[in-house]
């Protein structure tokens, strides 16, 4: 089940990666290089966190492995929220 939540975060990040430039172009703006970096980071972060959680949870009991996966998912969610609230929108778009 946690794997599906990790997959959901990747799908949501890919959706942002695809749709944000289209929405910006529709109103006459483009994505800045910093914006592209943040969008790419949003896609890579859940994948990296999942791989690290699997690596750290290896050879552990099932409850501990589940805990490590849950902590990784919580960290991904926290970082994505921080990006959404602390990175100014002006760093994403340029005319």
Helix content: over 70%
Q: Mean pLDDT across all residues, rounded?
A: 92
Strand order of the largest sheet: 1-2
Rg calc? 16 Å
Structural class: mainly alpha
Question: How many beta-strand elements?
Answer: 2
Largest sheet: 2 strands, antiparallel
The number of domains is 1
Distance between the termini: 42 Å
How would you characterize this protein structure?
The chain is mainly α and 95 residues long. It has helices at residues 2-26, 33-57, 62-86; strands spanning 30-31, 93-94. Strands 1-2 form a two-stranded antiparallel sheet. The chain is elongated and about 55 Å long. The mean pLDDT is 92.
Q: What would the keywords be for this entry?
A:
95 residues; mainly alpha; two-stranded antiparallel sheet; 4% strand; transmembrane helix; membrane; transmembrane
Could you provide a short overview of the structure?
With about 100 residues, this protein is mostly helical.
């Amino acid at each position: 089940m946690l794997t599906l939540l990790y997959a959901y975060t990747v799908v949501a990040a890919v959706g942002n990666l695809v749709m944000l430039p289209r929405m910006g172009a529709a109103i006459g703006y483009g994505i800045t290089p910093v914006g592209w970096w943040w969008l790419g980071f949003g896609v890579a972060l859940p994948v990296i966190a999942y791989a690290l959680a699997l690596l750290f949870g290896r050879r552990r009991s099932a409850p501990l492995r589940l805990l490590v996966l849950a902590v990784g998912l919580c960290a991904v969610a926290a970082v994505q929220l921080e990006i959404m609230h602390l990175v100014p929108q002006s760093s994403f778009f340029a005319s």
